[in-house]
């Protein structure tokens, strides 16, 4: 769901208010039956999905019915039959995803490399129906459905699953479109025979996460967005500035989304997985991936890396590289995402083989080696963001060339970069950077203090209320799209 | 803390922040506050004009920044008042907000910019917020969803808005906005804004929208129900007068508008101007010397309509000299 689209809140309000009024009266008169909570949640989730995207809903509805029927069948069978059903469901789920997301890329960018004229004639024909227009949320709900099939296949509990429970599991409105990608073991028990658990604690917790999420998205990410200039290739300072701002924006954008989802789920008494754990405090790339988009990283670990590697542990490094490259490809059907994935795979390999000796070497000779580790990690993530944000390969090449040209780092270029902003634009940028730095500092502080949660300080009662106030006062009036909606 | 009190504190914080934002946006400092103040000032000035016949000119900023009403008043011999507002308010809100000022015997000249004429739904970015700011929420039939969003946004000043105003307070000692310059006693602006960016000639890919035609036709009925007369004019615009599609669309627009009410414009040029020196900061706003030329042109074009109004059977009063 697009939480920065007013339409989401409007539909939530229009359905929620009458439903909960009827529920309240029903409870008061003692005629409300518990199963109506499950049905209410299902209707709410599906209506919000229809509102978000009608075209995607048709595919989603088909996948729900297909997956439910097949999983039910799978749970009744044993041995190779059960395995064959699981393989078929996963194959078809991935094929649907590939159809919408990757067909154009394979024809135009891969096949086009070897067969001349293919791209032009493909584009002239307009491709095949639906391909290239990625239905919102398809990547996320496909992964959640695939994980459910695997987990159900592996589960010792082969009890049949209720259809309403299954629909609620895959369509739970706070997280269906952009995650967190929930697992059967984490979410299903909370969703099974669902009951709304409205309590003051749930509201207080929910409001805290909601405030933090809204602040990150509407104040930080959306105010940073207009300063990211993808067209600039010549001025090295502006190129670096855009990379830096994009690095900040993508975190605040996606973490903001995840925290809003977490807050909304808490209102109704559901605990979602924390998808971001202060990733920019990481002193190594390995740790960065333990903190960034956690549910996707663990999905790739459990359903791609481990099955690929199997017993061949000596090839772990190779499979790690392959998994990260695939993860990059999941983010988008474009070369830059593949490069981004491979780049992170390589960084992990470098860390695996050279990390310890390097850290020992630095530790013996330099003051504050931890700070250096953090700076190197953040710098590497930033450079990776260049590959992530720039889908135009020609421009990407130009930018890389600019970044490695020593004389591009001149004072005249610096002056030109600074004078490219008006006084008002410059002041706004300074203020946003101040706010982002303060936010990141509080994450660092919580990590240094070894608090239970990295967002403890930001979630303190008084600060969350301040964040809500600041969000109302400082939110950008033209919200930018969620970056992860395009994947 | 007692639980209900704990939750109430969220509402208190949100309410306080929203109220501060509302005061800034609508009352003191935000762009909307200047627009509201300009509208209220114009309404107050217009209502003070005691005359049996007035010429009220309205539209968006393409009316507000293009007139010399003093000159027009001298030439026409009746009071002339500039009720031009702001394009993003939208035709559906501009027209009813002006209608309340129309009196029996008035001549209303509507000069809508193409922004208003081409718009498919008659609503703009400021439709809802303007209606609420002037105390008439829902003016123009704004859909409830849009109205709810606009109401919520009334309390959101934005980081950009607050920073701009803060810098102005430091530099100038006061907050300003696009419409913060005072208007004179006839509603004309007192300051001319200069263009900083590059010019390009506008082209029009579509003729007037069906919605705009329907709304203007309805406006004519509303004006006439009050015993006044509606006259329409094409705006002066810096545009490519050699572009065939543009010419075709403007001709079509003129043809359709003239079916609703008398339409005044320069037949050869279609009011498409190729000289950017005439224009101030936008493709519609005119420099003072161009306003004089435009005012004289309007006087010549309006004389027959005014004469007809003054000699109409129900026009019982004489024109003040």
Write up this protein:
The complex is a heterodimer of chains A (487) and B (321). Chain A has 487 residues and is mostly helical. Chain A contains 19 helices and no strands. In chain A, helix 2 (35-52) packs across helix 7 (163-171) and helix 14 (335-365) packs antiparallel against helix 15. The mean pLDDT of chain A is 89. Chain B contains twelve helices and seven strands. In chain B, 48% of the residues lie in helices and 7% in strands. Chain B is globular, with a radius of gyration of 21 Å. The A-B interface holds A 6-7, 10, 200, 203-204, 207, 219, 223, 423-424, 427-428, 431-432, 461, 465-466, 468-470, 472-477 and B 3-4, 6-7, 9-10, 13-14, 16-18, 20-21, 145, 148-149, 152-153, 155-160, 162-164, 166-167.
Notable characteristics:
heterodimer; A: about 475 residues; mainly alpha; about 0% strand; globular; B: about 325 residues; alpha/beta; 5-stranded parallel beta sheet; two-stranded parallel sheet; 7 strands; about 5% strand; disordered C terminus
Helix content of chain B: 40-55%
How many strands, which pairing sense, and closed or not: the largest β-sheet of chain A? none
Unreliable stretches of chain B, pLDDT < 50, 5 or more residues?
Answer: 315-321
Q: Give the tally of β-strands of chain A.
A: 0
Structural class of the helices, strands and pairings of chain A? mainly alpha
Q: How much strand content do the residues of chain A show?
A: under 5%
Radius of gyration of chain A: 24 Å
Helix tally of chain A? 19
Elements of chain B, N to C (H/E):
HHEHHEHEHHHHHEEHEEH
Q: What global shape of chain B is seen?
A: globular
By helix and strand content of chain B, what is the structural category? alpha/beta
Note the overall shape of chain A.
globular
Please compute the radius of gyration of chain B using only Cα atoms.
21 Å
Distance between the termini of chain B: 75 Å
Tell how many strands the DSSP assignment of chain B holds. Answer: 7
Residues in helices of chain A, as a percent range: over 70%
Number of helices of chain B: 12
Low-pLDDT runs of chain A:
none
Task: Give the overall average pLDDT of chain B.
Answer: 91
Biggest interchain interface, per-side counts: A-B, 27 and 29 residues
Q: Give the spatial strand order of the biggest sheet of chain B.
A: 2-1-3-4-6
